[in-house]
Structures are given as structure tokens and as C-alpha cells.
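Box 3.1 A note on notation
Throughout this textbook, protein chains are presented in two layers. The first layer is the amino acid sequence; the second is a C-alpha cell string describing backbone geometry. Keep the layers aligned when reading.
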Amino acid sequence: MMEKERIVEIRNISKHYTLGGETVKALDDVSFSVNKGDFIAIIGPSGSGKSTLMNMIGCLDIPDSGEYFLEGKNVFSLKQKQLADVRNQKIGFIFQSFNLLSKQTAYENVELPLIYRGMNSSSRKEIVMNALEKVGLAERASHKPTELSGGQQQRVAIARALAGNPPILLADEPTGALDSKTGIEVMNLIKELNNLGHTIILITHDLDIANQAKRVIRIQDGKICEREEALVH
């Protein structure tokens, strides 16, 4: 059997914060890896360390100790400008609150990270429309967020994350701001994207959401305390 390509390798990451004069250990010697095509859910209650871990994976924060290899490169050894490039080119972010620009159209919101890359307009157009097509919103390209439902806004956010085909899609509570029916539709889209080959890391506190992933990593008090196969694929 051919060995899967490893995209992410987290090695012995620890992170401490000082709150009210006390030292809080947000992450405590955390290690795990992610292969190409994986769909992993990281689940834990509030204060478990999952948000801190998400910030590490997304290159939004650095640890006190440990290493993070993304496509073989130790990202924690990079300078701030290089980290910004990693965030723009290697990680597609999907946020609970969508984080769309209200005065920009769906097309313009999806286009934005490609502009930051310095891509020319003709190349951007093809990528943006392909991404919107993939989430079923090509016909809504000219609509602004206020003209879209919550589910459609999250689909635009997913299209933005897909633009440029980053190695990882990092989803933070992607159904948290949606009603249950729309949440199911968004999760079905995420599973469909994984079936198309996209590597997905999803952060959640919801066991029903986590169990839709192919693999579940539990975090508690800054430690990975359990790893198991998801119950539902």
C-alpha cells in the first residue's frame, strides 16, 4: 500500500499564557499529523485548548516550544512576512462568522486573497468562478452578503478558502452561526469537498459535527487525550 503524503506534522507543541498573575498551560506537549486528503475534526469544550491549537495550525500564533511542519517546512522558523505568505497561500480559512466584506460582492470577496498574491485579473476570474461554481453559487457572484442567506454567505466564505487551491482548509465552527438545516447543508458541502481530495481540519465543540469527519482528535486541558475513528463517515 502506498504511503500517504503527510501535509502537517505537529511535534511537541506547548503554549502558556499568564492570566491574573497565574500561568495557564493552553497546550501541553501536543503532537499529531495530517495526511493529504484527510478530514480531521479537533473537538473539545471551551477552554480545552482547541482554539489555541487552531491558531497554531493557521500560523496565527507561535508556541513556546515545539515544531510545526507544513509540507515539510518548519513554519515556526519563518519570519512574519513569510508566515503571512503561508497563511495566504497554504491555508484556506473558514470562519464561524463568515468574515465577508459587506460592501463587496461574492465575487470580490472570493477574489481578495488572490489580489494579495499579485495574480492578474484574467487568472483571478477563472479561479474565482470555479470556486463559486464548486459551492453552487456562480449565479450569485454579483450579490453582496446582505443579499444572501446565512448558508449562502458561508458558501461564499468556503469558496474564498478554496480560491488558489491551498493544501489545507481550516474550518473553525463552520456551522456555529447557522440553523440546523443550513448547517447540515454546509457540512454536506464540506464532506463533498473532502471527497474531491481537499484536506480539511475542522475545529468544533459539537460531537455530532465531529463525528462526520473521518478522524476525531479530542483535546482536554491542553492535551490530546483520545484519538478515535469517527462514528459516521
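The chain has a mean pLDDT of 91. The first strand starts at residue 6 and ends at 19.
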